[in-house]
Amino acid sequence: MIDPQTVRFLDDLAIVDAHHHYWDLSGPVTYPWLQSPPWLAFRYGDYGAIRKSYLPEDYRRDHGAHRIVADIHMEAEPRHGMACAEIDWLASLGEVAPRAAAAQIWLDGDDLDDQLKELARRPLVRSVRHKPKALPREEARRGAAGSMDDPKWRDGYARLAATSLHFELQTPWWHLDAAADLARDFPETRIILNHCGLPAQRSDEDLAAWRAAIVRFADLENTVVKLSGIGLAPGIWPEEQNIHILRELITIFGPGRAMFASNFPVDRLCITFEAMFSAYKRAVHDLPREDVISLFSGCAASTYGLNIGEASLER
């Protein structure tokens, strides 16, 4: 049982949601995966319930009483060529716009220099994401076209070192050997691992292999992890297993390199926002308060260059 003083501390905790999405399906940006069939195979199963606009008022309704003091928008895979249009739409939201954003980029695109130039003109942008080619675990190998080993993809990644942009990596854990090589070879670029490295297989053997891959990746100091995206098909959120995964990651990376995030509205397919963040709080209730604050706000604020103010951290 959590003591009452800790409950009050957790209830009042300031949160920087390090990864969520907005999209307006009637707006200026198009999202093929949400708007036109054939529908993609999706890791949570049927995603028909989120194929509708998701706007700041929807997010506020979802997060409810949890005290969100800042938020980071993750690119929602707009149509190729619309990365800047997505950022400009976010900026047009005014007071309800996210505090920072990760923009879509195509590292192997012939127009990469133009992409970087345009994104650099937009102060909302702090990082970029391009999902590298991923293979099924049973087919996993190094060197596939479009992967982190692809020379053209890697040459594009090398250009990030001359910018202030971080790289958001979404890839299954069995490709983290390639990610570790990227982190080692390009130490100027911070890699933010999305969604815990996607530990979808949950046998003891699978989790041991996931952990070994995570340990190798986390050994590089320019790596950070987002504690998010750990639902399972067909839309479930197994709390006991997930808390084990979260605690493993916090131990491996340390609270200064790990940040909680919602991945809403995607993870709404598995769990409510209230239930998710309540579970996050239960997962770390026994840690020192300074570690809890770092996990819920400090690491994200530092990573994305946010000034959220000391007064907002506790009340």
TrEMBL record:
<dbReference type="InterPro" id="IPR032466">
    <property type="entry name" value="Metal_Hydrolase"/>
</dbReference>
<feature type="domain" description="Amidohydrolase-related">
    <location>
        <begin position="16"/>
        <end position="306"/>
    </location>
</feature>
<dbReference type="Pfam" id="PF04909">
    <property type="entry name" value="Amidohydro_2"/>
</dbReference>
<comment type="similarity">
    <text>Belongs to the metallo-dependent hydrolases superfamily.</text>
</comment>
<dbReference type="InterPro" id="IPR052350">
    <property type="entry name" value="Metallo-dep_Lactonases"/>
</dbReference>
<dbReference type="InterPro" id="IPR006680">
    <property type="entry name" value="Amidohydro-rel"/>
</dbReference>
<protein>
    <submittedName>
        <fullName>Amidohydrolase family protein</fullName>
    </submittedName>
</protein>
